[in-house]
Design a protein that fits this description.
Elements lengths: L2 E4 L5 H12 L3 E5 L5 H12 L3 E4 L6 H15 L4 E4 L14 H29 L2 E6 L12 H21 L4 E8 L5 H14 L3 H9 L11 H12 L10 E4 L7
Parallel strand pairs: 1-2, 1-4, 2-3, 4-5, 5-6, 6-7
Helix pairs in contact: 1-8, 3-4, 4-5, 6-7
GO biological process, one term: monocarboxylic acid metabolic process
Protein name: 3-hydroxybutyrate dehydrogenase
EC number: 1.1.1.30
């Protein structure tokens, strides 16, 4: 039985990945800021008959990240799979972009993945097995206006992914990024209203003319597709699959 640590595992895409991993027999540490995180962990454990522990570590703080990884190692035994999924968004033109939002987005969407990866690295290296999966974005490959911090952080994740793949190669540690297009999660629900203000459009027009305009397959991406890709990347069979940026974006990045 393998263990996975999933940041932001108590909402949206991360929760979907947690459910699929639990259904496939993984023990989990799920992390997130949701107030009912401990209840979510209990429900996953009861439904899938695996061990699920919860951490409310705030990923803005590297010392809390290190404590979270220690908790996973103590309560699960070891971390075999790390899914760096937690993320936040803020939408504004660059000249109005609040500096504290820039700092927070870089901290949560980029730096936290360095700190988690560093903290699990020693154990993965010793055991000669590790799978690091970064939930990046189509915005790791393409830009959109009004998202300076998010696009910069996600492009940064692309670089981190490739470096970890190179450094992990001698130790059977792989690192890959999944790059989803729009997925209808709480993060996107908030963006629909923010984008409506920024573009001065109705919310229905934002969905049709701004978001899905870039996705030739005119549907939001299904969380299950992302979770299935994460399971494949986590598999011991995927040792040659490393350093990639996997788009699941309805054809967005084909353009
Ligand atoms: P979400 O808002 O549903 O979930 C985000 C999770 O991150 C939550 O559990 C939240 O508590 C956690 N989180 C946020 N800040 C944190 C912090 N400081 N410390 C600890 N946890 C924190 O969002 P989602 O849409 O499921 O997004 C998950 C990931 O997928 C993000 O990295 C996002 O950028 C990426 N992504 C989302 C979409 C989309 O369309 N939803 C598309 C591409 C990529």
């Amino acid at each position: 039985m393998k263990n996975a640590l999933i940041t932001g595992g108590t909402s949206g895409i991360g929760l979907g990945i947690a459910g699929h991993f639990a259904a496939n027999g993984y023990n989990l540490l799920v992390n997130g800021l949701e107030r009912n995180g401990a209840d979510i962990a209990k429900e996953l454990a009861a439904e899938y008959k695996v061990k699920v522990v919860f951490s409310s570590a705030n990923l803005m703080h590297p010392e809390q990240i290190r404590e979270m990884v220690q908790q996973a190692e103590q309560e699960l035994g070891q971390v075999d799979v790390l899914v760096n999924n937690a993320g936040i968004q803020y939408v504004a033109p660059v000249d109005e972009f609040p500096e504290d939002k820039w700092d927070a987005i870089l901290a949560v969407n980029l730096s936290s993945s360095f700190h988690t990866s560093k903290a699990v690295w020693k154990g993965m290296k010793e055991r000669k097995f590790g799978r690091i999966i970064n939930i990046a974005s189509a915005h790791a490959l393409r830009a959109s206006e009004f998202k300076a911090a998010y696009v910069a952080a996600k492009h940064g994740i692309a670089g981190l992914t490739k470096v970890l793949a190179l450094e992990g190669a001698p130790y059977n540690i792989t690192c890959n990024a999944i790059c989803p297009g729009y997925v209808r999660t709480p993060l996107v629900e908030a963006q629909i209203s923010d984008q409506a203000k920024a573009h001065q459009m109705s919310e229905a027009d934002v969905i049709e003319k701004v978001m899905l305009k870039k996705q030739p397959v005119k549907q939001f991406v299904d969380v299950c597709a992302i979770a299935q890709m994460a399971l494949l990347l986590a598999s011991p069979m995927s040792s040659q699959l490393t350093g990639t940026m996997m788009p699941i974006d309805g054809g967005w990045s084909a353009q």
